[in-house]
UniProtKB/TrEMBL annotation:
SUPFAM superfamilies: PLP-dependent transferases. It catalyses: (6R)-5,10-methylene-5,6,7,8-tetrahydrofolate + glycine + H2O = (6S)-5,6,7,8-tetrahydrofolate + L-serine. It comes from Mycolicibacterium obuense. GO terms for biological process: glycine biosynthetic process from serine; methylation; tetrahydrofolate interconversion. Its main location: cytoplasm. This is Serine hydroxymethyltransferase. Keywords: Amino-acid biosynthesis, Cytoplasm, Methyltransferase, One-carbon metabolism, Pyridoxal phosphate, Transferase. It is found in: Cytoplasm. It holds the Pfam family SHMT. The gene is glyA. Catalyzes the reversible interconversion of serine and glycine with tetrahydrofolate (THF) serving as the one-carbon carrier. This reaction serves as the major source of one-carbon groups required for the biosynthesis of purines, thymidylate, methionine, and other important biomolecules. Also exhibits THF-independent aldolase activity toward beta-hydroxyamino acids, producing glycine and aldehydes, via a retro-aldol mechanism. GO terms for molecular function: glycine hydroxymethyltransferase activity; methyltransferase activity; pyridoxal phosphate binding. Belongs to the SHMT family. Residues 29-133, 164-436 form the Serine hydroxymethyltransferase-like domain.
Length: 487
């Protein structure tokens, strides 16, 4: 087992995990062989490609196996010890353990393990903040009244009041997330929204500009966090800005929760001591199952705890169980080694691009992701994404600040190091990855379109994809995914 791999991904688990998966696939095969086949193929595809999507990872067999149980069959609306269904004693155990591990890992006073995703976690947080902060009969009572008991007058009052609440988060094109007040998302509809961006020259957050915008707009909620900003955030400073106008400070740490858990982000860079409410997903750098979590101070905890039925339906108890397992893994000392390697590897990847004259948003990184501006290669993000995929390199196209190609074609490619670090890649391997990416992009040309160069079509010089695939295969074979696991 490498120093950075999760417990359960090492060779000592391989025989047991292999037996478990072989048995599971035989059972699936007896009902729908095409699903068994697709499942085998997915592992094969993941094993044989360079996975650089910043929001993906490889969970341990322990986490994955935990999801395939009869907890999936149980309804458990409500919260620990207070369910709307009978016979939830084992779900209570699971949910309480997931919350306990989350509290201990992040040093939070309260944790809520039910959100099915990051978007759900953010919606739970928004409604809990409204329920806690806004003094109308309808909203104030959401924290204590069952949703079915709200009268039509309560709802009318709630809707009227919602129309007057304000939310400010980071704009999508500078690295924020849809749910941080992007106008077409419900977060940009249920609130009056305004967004802060980054300095157009440097690409960094300009805290004075954020403070000025917050002073002017006076949001009820100030959101920090990102999905494509390659730098750390000073959460102590953001909290001061929020406090100046009495805003609730919320941080969505979905992307970098693993770096918080692994103590790479500490002090002013750790959101938990500074924010009133922190949300996250559990499947990105945290390396758990696909799902969400909310952490909150005591003030917000009672309202967050009513996430179901306020926002959520039946909890996914099998996923909460897997969250508990993943959080237990993240509390092991190896996880700190892993998290530090994620950050070091991102540095190496960024340095590898810079020394080969590729242009990066902000000029580099100090977290787990790198945002490459592919306009210097004469390409759109879409062309670059496709050419890289042809060569066995899996990334996603992403807008860059003030993107000339818009959100569909984009001008950027986002790279992240969490997944390949789990496989055991180190600084040298990530430098080689940068070399291979530059090789692909330097050999890609936009194809001609009806009105000039196409934004989608491209040609890749003969032999490039095969050459890069072969080089990638060497790296992948030296750092196998789930070593020893055979189906
Ligand atoms: N889809 C996630 C990401 O890739 O960053 C965010 O929701």
């Amino acid at each position: 087992m490498t120093a950075t791999s999760a417990k359960g991904q090492g060779i000592e688990y391989a025989d047991t995990a292999s037996e478990a998966y072989r048995a599971a696939l035989r059972v699936i095969e007896s009902v729908e062989p095409r699903i068994a086949e697709a499942t085998r193929k997915e592992l094969d595809d993941q094993r044989h490609s360079l996975k650089l999507i910043a929001s993906e990872n490889y969970a341990s067999p322990a986490v994955l196996l935990t999801m395939g149980t009869w907890f999936s069959d149980k309804y458990a609306e409500g919260t620990v010890g207070h369910r709307f269904y009978a016979a939830c004693q084992n779900v209570d155990t699971v949910e309480a353990l997931a919350a306990e591990h989350a509290r201990e890992l992040f040093g939070a006073s309260y944790a809520y393990a039910q959100p099915h995703s990051g978007i759900d976690a953010n919606l739970v947080a928004y409604w809990a903040i409204l329920a806690t902060r806004v003094e109308t009969p309808g909203l104030a009572e959401l924290g204590s009244k069952h949703i079915n008991d709200l009268s039509e007058a309560d709802w009318e009052s709630l809707r009227a009041k919602l129309g007057n609440q304000k939310l400010m988060g980071m704009s999508l094109d500078t690295g924020g997330h849809l749910t941080h007040g992007f106008r077409p998302n419900i977060s940009g509809k249920m609130f009056h929204q305004r967004q802060y961006g980054t300095n157009p020259e440097t690409g960094f957050i300009d805290y004075d500009a954020v403070a000025a915008a917050v002073r002017e707009f006076k949001p009820l909620i100030l959101v920090a966090g990102y999905s494509a900003y390659p730098r750390r955030v000073n959460f102590a400073k953001m909290r001061e800005i929020a406090d100046e106008v009495g805003a609730t400070f919320m941080v969505d740490m979905a992307h970098f929760a693993g770096l918080v858990a692994g103590k790479v982000f500490t002090g002013d860079e750790d959101p938990v001591p500074h924010a009133h409410v922190v949300t996250t997903t559990t499947h990105k750098s945290l390396r758990g199952p696909r799902g969400g979590l909310v952490l909150a101070t005591e003030e917000y905890a009672p309202a967050v705890d009513k996430g179901c039925p306020m926002v959520l339906g039946g909890p996914l108890s099998h996923v909460m169980a897997a969250k508990a397992v993943a959080l237990a893994e993240a509390r092991q000392p190896e996880f700190r080694t892993y998290a530090q390697a994620v950050a070091d590897n991102a540095q190496s990847l960024a340095d590898g691009f810079v020394k080969r004259d590729a242009s990066l948003v902000t000029g580099g990184t100090d977290n787990h992701l790198v945002l490459l501006d592919v306009t210097s290669f004469g390409l759109t993000g879409r062309q670059a994404e496709s050419a890289l995929l042809d060569s066995g390199i899996v990334t996603n196209r992403n807008a860059i600040p003030a993107d000339p190609n818009g959100a569909w074609y984009t001008s950027g490619i986002r790279f992240g190091t969490p997944a390949l670090t789990t496989r055991g890649f180190g600084a040298d391997e990530f430098d080689r990855v940068a070399e291979l990416v530059v090789e692909v992009l330097s050999n890609t040309q936009p194809a001609a379109g009806p009105n000039g160069p196409s934004k989608a079509k491209y040609t890749l010089a003969d032999g490039t994809a095969d050459r890069v695939r072969a080089a990638a295969a060497e790296l992948l074979e030296a750092n196998p995914l789930y070593p020893g696991l055979t189906l």
